[in-house]
Amino acid sequence: MAAPVGSLRRAGWLRVAWRVACVVVLPALLACDEQEPAVARGDRLWADSSYENALAEYRLALLQGSRDDAAYLRVAHAYAQLGKLEEAVESYRTVLDRSPELADQAVFDYLALARRALARGDRHGVARGVEAALALQPALPLGEFAPVLARYYSEVGDPERALLFYQRALTTAAPEAVPGIFFQLGSVHAGRGNCREALGFFAAARDRAVDKARADEAKWRMGECAFELARRARQEGQITEALAQLELVLELGTPANLLDQAWFERGEVLFALGRFEQALESYRRVLELNRSRGGALVDRARERIDQIRFGT
Q1: Is residue 208, in this structure, part of any structural domain at all?
Q2: Which has more confidence, 293 or 187?
Q3: Helix, strand, coil % over all residues of the chain, rounded to 5
Q4: pTM higher than 0.85 for the full model?
Q5: Rounded distance, CA 47 to CA 81, Å?
Q6: Nearest Cα to 94, choosing from 79, 74, 72?
Q7: pLDDT of 13 over the 90 cut
Q8: What number is the average pLDDT over the span 161-175?
Q9: Can you give the pLDDT at residue 34?
Q10: CATH number for the domain harbouring residue 55
């Protein structure tokens, strides 16, 4: 059956209209799209969470000669959003050369990157983000980042930065966290061979410890440091200082494996000072601690006892 004439005419009109649209209207729409600023296209893509494509448009805007601060800022922020810290830092450097007042935005982005790194357990990433922020605002409060970075720098062998971040951690730490920070400060100082400073921090950790195990650990480290200080003092001829440190070791009663040696060293110092009765007591304690075993230390203690008692 033939189609009605009216229907054919309508169909023909639609075909003509479509051809006109293809020839006239569609190019016009494309031209409008091409005339839309790259920044505006980037913003639409950003709103759709298409960050890579948005960044491409923002960079295109710069390549096209845009000198708008907003374009530079969008590029830097996009790099940060994509986790590209080095590129973000470099872009923000350009932004801040032009508009220093935007430093807060850069710091916000760097700390956001650090926070994301912290969430995935990437302490190196935390350090990179926080250090970038501190380069702009050195007095920036660090909160949760400070103890994380202190431990990180301690473990990678950078005690100077570890001490810096432990000290900053103390300013915001909860009371229950303070003994642990004191202990870590002592550990860093001891690792650097600075036992005198370490001893003070270990003592503070012991005095503030909330449980016996932590207190005992701090006390053990105190005894270890005091014994080391006594040894150095004797080598330097500081007899009185050596005696004071040995008395501290014996008062603490720890480390247990050093007590017989500490008693012997105490005896040697007292012997040198002519306090023979007290020296005799120290040498006898060496024998008491080694009832079931001998050794060079025991033999030396016996020799000293005989020397004091019989003048041999």
Answers
A1: no
A2: 187
A3: 80, 0, 20
A4: no
A5: 13
A6: 72
A7: no
A8: 93
A9: 54
A10: 1.25.40.10
Structural domain span for residue 58: 39-140
Domain boundary pick from 114, 140, 166: 140
Q: What is the spatial distance between Cα 95 and Cα 98, in angstroms, rounded to a whole number?
A: 5
**pLDDT value at position 312?**
62
Sign of the C-alpha dihedral, residues 96, 110, 170, 124?
Answer: negative
- Is 153 among the domain residues? no
Q: How far apart are CA 123 and CA 86, in angstroms?
A: 16
In the numeric block, which tokens belong to residue 94?
């350009």
What average pLDDT does the structure give for the chain?
88
Check residues 153 and 20 and name the one with the higher pLDDT. Answer: 153
The C-alpha atoms of residue 72 and residue 95 are separated, in whole angstroms, by 6
Q: What is the CA radius of gyration of the chain?
A: 37
**Domain tally, the chain:** 2
Cβ pair 264, 297 in contact under 8 A: yes
Domain boundary among 122, 140, 158: 140
CA distance 91 to 99: 12
Task: For residue 203, tell me if it sits in a domain.
Answer: no
Query: At residue 1, does pLDDT exceed 50?
Result: no
In angstroms, what CA-CA distances link 271 with 241, 268, 275, 282, 304? 15, 5, 6, 10, 9
Return the ∠ at Cα 59 (arms to 53 and 65), rounded to 5°: 145
- C-beta separation of 102 from 96 below 8 A: yes
Tokens 């200080």 appear where? 229
| b/e burial code for range 286-298 (CB count within 10 A of at least 16 → b) | bbebeeeeeeebb
